[in-house]
């Protein structure tokens, strides 16, 4: 312990020395980490994402030479950690392969890096198969617990209270980063739909009504409807925000006579059924199907209004499945 520090409001504050890291909950802690580690991108050749206390490297591996280059970057990171006396937590360092794997043993200093098939990244489970089933199951379990807790607290809901409860407690969990992990397997879609089925049955007087009638009576958007709607709203923001960093993901198709509108997006070529349902691919099908008045809405609020009117007659727009 250090001597007493300066006094504020007649109260003495004592200082202490942190053995490692920074005090939990501090405001400047993440900033100090970033300042301390902001030279790391200059040490590696592969792509890197640097957070306050987390580093992600990724590279396209096609040959053994690519493996060697990635290993050299790992060696550079380990040397940096020794110079700066900031050791890595080897138990949390893992390798995730997507696609065909080139056999190679990667190491971080004396530690051999383990391979994993699933890894959680910023709250979203990423699988080597690119399927979203693990994330969908995790979301279902989490929202089921929330819904069960709300049922114990409130018992039954009215037609006025349930929409507010869903918007406050259920949708933030179900729709967090959903553009990244949007389900495309039928079993995952059905699994997540159960949350809405169960929640709408908790409304007094609607228990015996069909699901579609319950949704309409409560003036709620179905989960599948909200996924498409969220994709299109995000795309509108990307295309209409000057210098948006994600604009490079979309390429405008050459103008031609169309039954919809003249601002069509080129659909990226994909291999494999799972990639056809990535955000950048699937949203092109949905946006190209919009009528003229929706695609050319002057602002976001008008776009939402026109979009709801349009999708109400065509609630499901999906990329065609491969044979």
TrEMBL record:
InterPro entries: DNA/RNA_pol_sf (IPR043502), RT_dom (IPR000477). Residues 1-130 form the Reverse transcriptase domain. It holds the Pfam family RVT_1. Signal peptide: none annotated. This is Reverse transcriptase domain-containing protein. It comes from Paragonimus westermani. The lineage of its organism: Eukaryota, Metazoa, Spiralia, Lophotrochozoa, Platyhelminthes.
